[in-house]
Structure formats: structure tokens, C-alpha cells
Write a structure and sequence with these properties.
Layout (H helix, E strand, L loop, with lengths): L2 E3 L1 H8 L3 E10 H12 L2 E4 L7 E9 L4 H7 L6 E8 L4 E9 L5 E7 L7 H13 L11 E15 L9 E12 L9 E3 L3 E8 L5 H8 L9 H9 L9 H5 L5
Parallel strand pairs: 1-3
Antiparallel strand pairs: 2-7, 2-11, 3-8, 4-5, 4-8, 5-6, 6-7, 8-9, 9-10, 9-11
């Protein structure tokens, strides 16, 4: 029987807004076995009787895709701005993601009702980026650029020696869509033939990471925004996602 955990307890014990992320791209058949195996030793997030939840994110970028290019070149001071909608619960957030020391990911967020950015939102974004050491961001030019949707299951692994609990997310039925501001061309892509697994923990790999290693998977440079933009904006280079475009997401 799967053990569950509430959202309040999950956030209290492993919110992990500063963490080391490792992402893996699994085939559907392998993902099913992986989910079954880790569910026996993890607690699954449950809200109102559900353990899979619908997410939708809207990423903001400049007309010349400043954030995409910064991420593609792995700039130290790169950042992402997005709104995230938790469709199952109805909550919405504005989020800023930056890079910390030793490859950590830092996420700052505030409640936010819509996909648009108001002047007060721009002030908060600027203050957040300045606090995180990013001072060259073209914030006034940010506009809705790409929307991603997917279903997510979140698990918390049991603490191991020298480790606190690790948070694991499993994303399936991924789809990406350009906004109306995008150039003409393909506006939508269904990527449901792959599953993205992400471990959110500490510099030292967790037991879940080692399980994935044994399955033949290694951490990949995966970004939903990067992949979606590389697929749909054929007028732009794919940068560090070129290999993914030529293999896992080849037309």
C-alpha cells in the first residue's frame, strides 16, 4: 500500500527552495517500473484523494529570447521568470529561478493571479534578481513566451544516512505551446512519449539517483522551457539541447 503525505507536511520537511536538481529523461515503459519501485519506499503527495496533479506554467522572455539564450549558453547569472498554475488546487504563483553556489537552484515565489506581469510584479522580480546577484536583466521587456502543461506526481523519500529527505517529481503528458506573440510556424508539440524525473536534494546523489544510474540513466540537461523553445522556434539555435532535439525529440 502506498504511504501518502500531505502538502503541509511535505513543505514543512522538504520545501527545498534551495537545492541541487538532477533531471532524467525516461522512456514510458521504464517510467512505469521506476514509479512502482520507488513508491514502496517513499511517501506520495496526496491532495483530496489524488496523487497526480495538473500543472501549467507560462514562461516570460524578451522578444529576442534573452533568457533562452542565457540558459542555452549556461550563463552563471541566468534566470527564469514564470507563472505556475496548480490546476488541481487552484493556486497560482509568480516564480523566479536563479542559480546558486555549487550548482544549486534557488526559487523565489509569491502568490500571483494571472499570466500577465503588472508593474508591481516587475518591481518584485527586479528586487529578487538583485538579491540573487543578477543585475543585467531586461525586466521591462519580459512577455509571455511559452506555455507548458503536464501531470506531476511528487514523492518524498525516507531520510538516509547523511541525508535529509529527497523530493522526487515525475512529470508525464508534457505538452508545450507558443504564445500568440510567437512567429508563425508550429505552435504546439505533444511530448508525452517521454517522462521527466527530477530529484531535488543535496550535492551528494541520493538513493533515487543511484537507482536511476542502475537503470542506465544519467542526469541530463533538461529544461521544459529550453526544450519547448528549441522545438517550436526553429528560427533559433537549439544550443545545449541540440542532442535532445536530434534523438529523444526528433521529428
Amino acid at each position: 500500500m502506498t504511504t501518502t503525505i500531505s502538502l503541509a507536511e511535505l513543505n514543512a520537511t522538504s520545501s527545498l527552495l534551495q537545492r541541487v536538481d538532477r533531471k532524467y529523461l525516461l522512456d514510458l515503459t521504464d517510467a512505469e517500473g521506476f514509479i512502482e519501485e520507488i513508491s514502496a519506499t517513499s511517501r506520495v503527495l496526496e491532495i483530496n484523494g489524488s496523487t497526480w496533479f495538473d500543472y501549467r506554467s507560462c514562461y516570460f522572455d524578451t522578444p529576442d529570447l534573452f533568457c533562452y539564450r542565457q540558459a542555452g549558453h549556461k550563463r552563471r547569472r541566468r534566470f527564469k521568470v514564470r507563472t505556475r498554475e496548480y490546476l488541481s488546487s487552484g493556486s497560482n504563483w509568480l516564480e523566479v529561478k536563479t542559480r546558486g553556489v555549487r550548482g544549486t537552484t534557488i526559487k523565489d515565489r509569491i502568490p500571483h493571479p494571472a499570466r500577465t506581469l503588472m508593474p508591481s510584479d516587475q518591481v518584485w522580480i527586479a528586487a529578487t534578481l538583485a538579491h540573487r546577484g543578477v543585475d543585467t536583466a531586461p525586466i521591462p521587456l519580459l512577455q509571455p513566451t511559452l506555455v507548458t502543461s503536464y501531470m506531476r506526481r511528487t514523492l518524498q523519500t525516507l531520510p538516509a544516512q547523511n541525508h535529509g529527505p529527497t523530493r522526487v517529481t515525475i512529470d508525464r503528458r508534457l505538452a508545450v505551446e507558443l504564445t500568440n506573440n510567437a512567429p508563425t510556424g508550429a505552435l504546439f508539440a505533444d511530448l508525452s512519449h517521454k517522462v521527466i524525473v527530477e530529484t531535488k536534494g543535496f550535492p551528494r546523489p541520493s538513493g533515487i539517483d543511484h537507482l536511476l544510474y542502475r537503470m542506465g540513466y544519467r542526469p541530463r540537461s533538461i529544461s521544459k522551457y529550453g526544450i519547448g523553445t528549441a522545438l517550436l522556434r526553429i528560427d533559433q539555435p537549439a544550443f545545449r539541447w541540440t542532442r535532445l532535439m536530434n534523438t529523444d525529440f526528433a521529428a
